[in-house]
Amino acid sequence: MDSVDQITTRAIPADRRQGDALLRQMANEVVGAAFFGPLLKTAHNSVLKGKYGHGGRGEEIFQGQLDAELARSIARGVRTNLAETLYRKLTRQV
């Protein structure tokens, strides 16, 4: 086996690991957007807003962006069965 073949066979597992890591990350982001995002939105809408301590119109405008970022952070920090199931399903298809 020449040196080019040796390099190629060593590179394939690294590419596969990177692809698996990216796929796992995408599965977590999908779960974050589809599950944690609506959960946070519902939580914000159910809280009674008092006269004080409310950010006003600016908070209402940017609350969706904050919720999306929080959902991404939660999905990254928590390994859920839903994300793991999605990851496994996608790895079978790839």
Kindly describe this structure.
The chain is an all-alpha fold. It has a domain of 65 residues. The protein is built from three helices and no strands. Helix 1 packs antiparallel against helix 3. The N terminus is likely disordered.
Task: Briefly summarize what is shown.
The protein is mainly α. Helices cover 84% and strands 0% of the residues.
Map the helices and strands.
Blueprint: H1 3-46, H2 56-77, H3 81-93
Helix pairs in contact: 1-2, 1-3
Features:
94 residues, mainly alpha
Poorly predicted segments: 1-9
Global outline = elongated
The assigned structural class equals: mainly alpha
Strand content: under 5%
- By DSSP (H or I, 4+ residues per run), the number of helices equals 3
Distance between the termini: 29 Å
Task: Count the beta strands.
Answer: 0
Order of helices and strands: HHH
Largest sheet: none
